[in-house]
Amino acid sequence: MNLTSTLIEVEDSWEAVNDWFLKEKLSDGLPIVPPTAERVEKMLSATSRDPAEVVGPIPPKWAPCSIEKIAINAVMAGCLPEYLPVIITAVEAICEPRFNLYGVQATTGYVGPALLLNGPIRKELNVNCDSGVFGPGFRSNATIGRAIRLILITVGGGYPGDTDRSTFGWPGKYTMCFGENQEKSPWEPYHVEFGFKPEESTVTVFGINGFLPIHTAGNRGEQALSSLAEVIKMHQGVSHLDVGSFGGGTPLIALGIEDAEIMARDGITKKQVKDYLWEHASMKFYDIPARRKGHKSDEELLRESINVTPDGVVHLSTKPEDIMVIVVGGKHRHSVFLPMWTGRNTLCVIKPIR
Amino acid sequence: MTLCQSIFMELARTEAKFFGVAKLPLIEVPHHPSGGARAGEHRADAEGAIEVVGEKLTLGSGRK
């Protein structure tokens, strides 16, 4: 196989290789698997695509990301070769303009790509969708997400404190990959909602900047929904009021299987979940105290904010269908709100895995 | 020439280098806590930047 990447020679020890990657700022800080030519070739054997094919430029370095570069980073992350098609698809997805990878990479916010897998690929790769879905413990979840982060660092040049301007960063930037618990969801799988067949496999990328656990209450579906709405509203209420960027985007609600079960039992559809949250996880603009609106006038804020309706209601998203609802995890009454980076700055992208 | 808030200067320098224009003049605009600038601070920053832009555009000769 004809690899074109520069061959770096270092002392033949695991420690020396890792020291070199750390010194060159080509690491996420965790030990990497040395990407020898032999390992990279083995990784590439999992795809029929030309190693020289460029998937896209990765900002802020805007360096071309070839299939070969993806394979190198997959090796470094500890991936098995069969994970490679998922990683390639995820890179294609983050390179879509609507994902706004440049902003995601360079912002002072603390956003990172999160990967949602749907379809048979979850079982084929043993992707955790059930208890402990957000980690740790599963090689596929852990290393697929990590490969994306390494690509963003080594190809994109997004290194913390240099071009990655994130004030805090966040643990989800190390790795974030999970599958929907389709088998225990009472509703159609997420990817089917977007026109894919159940037997197709997809990856969806979200620009996620946080993790808000919600322990829901009540034995009726609407009570559980109400719990979600109240907590989400509180979170939204303290975000970015003074820069006019609240609401919008494609916020992600990860319902635990019991919350979804109770809602479905009481006849609530996934569409109704979205409609409810859109209506109730909202604030009345004129009820927000002036002290939380910064120095701008109401007129200025309203002019800058695309997600405020004419009657002054600030919604979670521009329209109900922009709220993304998935069912994940194991037993008990837990759900999670995964807010997206300042609303409309990044939108999720779904792609089929070929 | 590019105007850039101080917090993003390292990003701007790095990007300029990547794009092959390492000597691109970058005008640094002070950073304030987001949304927390006092009245008039942004105007003062803008006026300060205009002076530097003028100097750069005239290679400094206009200010002598």
Give a structural overview.
The complex is a heterodimer of chains A (354) and B (64). With 354 residues, chain A is of the alpha+beta class. Chain A folds into two domains: 14-181, no CATH class; 212-338, no CATH class. Helix content of chain A is 32%, strand content 15%. Chain A has helices at 14-23, 37-44, 67-77, 84-94, 101-106, 121-124, 139-154, 190-193, 221-237, 257-265, 270-280, 298-304, and strands spanning 54-58, 63-66, 112-118, 177-179, 202-208, 212-215, 252-256, 283-284, 313-314, 324-328, 334-338, 349-352. In chain A, the strands form four sheets. In chain A, strands 4-3-5-12 form a four-stranded mixed sheet. Chain A has a four-stranded mixed sheet with strand order 6-11-7-10. In chain A, strands 1-2 form a two-stranded antiparallel sheet. Chain B is built from two helices and two strands. Chain B has one domain. Chain B has helices at 9-18, 41-57; strands at residues 2-5, 26-29. With 64 residues, chain B is an alpha+beta fold. A two-stranded parallel ribbon of chain B has the order 1-2. The two termini of chain B are 21 Å apart. Helices cover 42% and strands 12% of the residues of chain B. The model of chain B has no long low-confidence stretch (mean pLDDT 84). The interface between A and B is medium-sized, with 16 and 12 residues.
| Lateral strand order in the biggest sheet of chain B | 1-2
Q: Average pLDDT of chain A, to the nearest integer?
A: 92
Number of helices of chain B: 2
Biggest interface and its residues per chain? A-B, 16 and 12 residues
Gap between N and C termini of chain A, in Å? 22 Å
The poorly predicted ranges of chain A are none
Morphology call of chain A = globular
Assess the beta-strand content of chain B as a share of residues. Answer: 5-15%
CA radius of gyration of chain B is 13 Å
Radius of gyration of chain A: 21 Å
Separate helix tally of chain A? 12
Q: Name the structural class of chain B.
A: alpha+beta
Question: Strand-and-helix sequence of chain B, N→C?
Answer: EHEH
- Total number of distinct structural domains of chain B: 1
The total count of strands of chain A amounts to 12
Q: What percent of residues of chain B adopt helix (DSSP H or I)?
A: 40-55%
